[in-house]
Amino acid sequence: MPNTITLWNGRTLPRIGVGTWAAGGAVYSGDSRTIYGEVDDARSEAALRMAYEMGCRVFDTAPGYGAGNAELILGRALSGKTDAFIVTKVGYFGDPTTRQSAPEDASPSAIRTTVDGSLKRLQREQLDIVLLHLNAYPIERAGEVFDTLAALRDVGKIGGFGWSTDHPERLAAFAGREGFVAVENDYNVFTPAHELMAIAEREGLVSLSRLPLAMGLLTGKYKPGQRLRSDDVKGGDADWLTFFRNGVPSPDYLARLDAIRALLRTDGRTLAQGALGWILAASPIALPIPGFTTPEQIADNLGALEKGPLPAAVMAEIATVLAAG
To answer: For residues 201 and 162, what is the distance between their CA atoms, to the nearest angstrom?
Structure first.
C-alpha cells in the first residue's frame, strides 16, 4: 500500500498530515479556560514550517481551535506555500484576540462569515476542504449546511466539503452529494469505526483520522493514575472523552496498550509511529492528522511515513490480542 493518497481532484498527497487543535492554545468560555496541552505560538509556527519542509502537505485546523488562533498560526507558517492542502471547518468559531469561543452556529450566514474569516486568517484564496464541525448536528438541518457549502464551492471559495462526524447514518445521508469529498472521524487502533469507514470507502471519500494517537495515550507518555491539569480538556468530564476519565488515563486503555506495545514497535518504530502505521495499513482511504505541542512530536509522527504501514502479520496479531482482551 503506498504512503500517498489520491484525492477526488487527482492530486496525490503524503498520507500523514498535521492537526492544530492543541497548537491553537487556550480557549475561554466566559471565565472557564481549556487547553489541549501547553503550547507557544512561535514554537508552534516554527514546528508547522518544519512539517512542511519535511514533506507534509496536509494541515487540519478550525476556527474553533484557539478561537481562531490556530488558523492565524497556520496562515503565517504556510504563507506563500500554495501547495499546502488545508482543511478547516464551520460551526464553531470565536475571537482569536480575546480567545473567547462563541455559541455554535451553522446557519448559512454564519457559514459564509466563518469561511471568509478563515480565508483571511489562513491567507488563502481557496480553502481545500471545509467540514461541518458539529459531530451530531441534526440530519434534518444538515442539508442547508451542505447547500451553503456547495454554493461556496461553486464560487471558488472552497474546493470540497464534508462532515466531521462519527455517526454513520449522518455520513450516509449526504456522502453522495457532488462536492462532498471527505469525512473526519475518530480512527485509531482502539476505535476502528468499521461501519463509518465502509461508507466512506464506498463513496470514494478521504477519511481524515482524528485522535489517531488516542489523545496522546498511544504514545506511551501517560502512566496509570497520572492526574491531568484541571484546565486540560482531557481532564474534563465530557461524554465524548473515551481515553481519559475522571482526570486520569483510562486504566482499561492503558492495559490494552501494554498488550500491543511490542507489536506497535515492530521494526524499530516508536509507539506513535506504530499507531500511525496501524492506520496506514488498516484503510487505504485513511489520512491520519496527529496533533502536536512540540516540533519533536511532529518529527516523530511524520517519521511513520518512512516506516510505512504495519505488516499484515502484525496487524493480524494486534487484532487477535485486542479481541482476546
So the answer is: 14
- What is the residue type of 107? S
| DSSP conformation class of 152 | H
pLDDT of 65-78, one tens digit each? 999 999 999 999 99
244, part of any domain: no
Q: Can you tell me the distance from the alpha carbon of 37 to that of 47, in angstroms, rounded to the nearest whole number?
A: 15
Residue 144 maps to a domain: yes
8 A C-beta contact, residue 212 and residue 275: yes
| Bridge partners (DSSP) listed for residue 287 | 208
Length of the chain (residues): 325
* Count of helices and strands (H, E) across the chain: 10, 16
Query: Which is nearest to 274 in space by CA: 186, 153, 188?
Result: 188
> Contact at 8 Å (CB) between 305 and 3?
yes
Question: Any idea what DSSP says for residue 191?
Answer: B
Task: Report the distance separating Cα 193 and Cα 301, nearest Å.
Answer: 22
Q: How many domains does the chain have?
A: 1
- Phi and psi dihedrals of 306, rounded to 5? -70, -40
254 inside domain: no
What is the domain extent for residue 24? Answer: 4-219+271-310
At 152-179, the pLDDT tens digits run: 999 999 999 999 999 999 999 999 999 9
Backbone angles phi, psi at 202, to 5 degrees: -60, -35
- What span, in angstroms and rounded, lies between the C-alpha atoms of 149 and 108? 9
pTM for the full predicted model? 0.97
DSSP letters, 207-244, are EEEESTTGGGGGGT---TTPPPPTTBGGGS--TT--SE
- CATH number of the domain to which 100 belongs: 3.20.20.100
Asked whether residue 67 is assigned to any structural domain, the reply reads yes
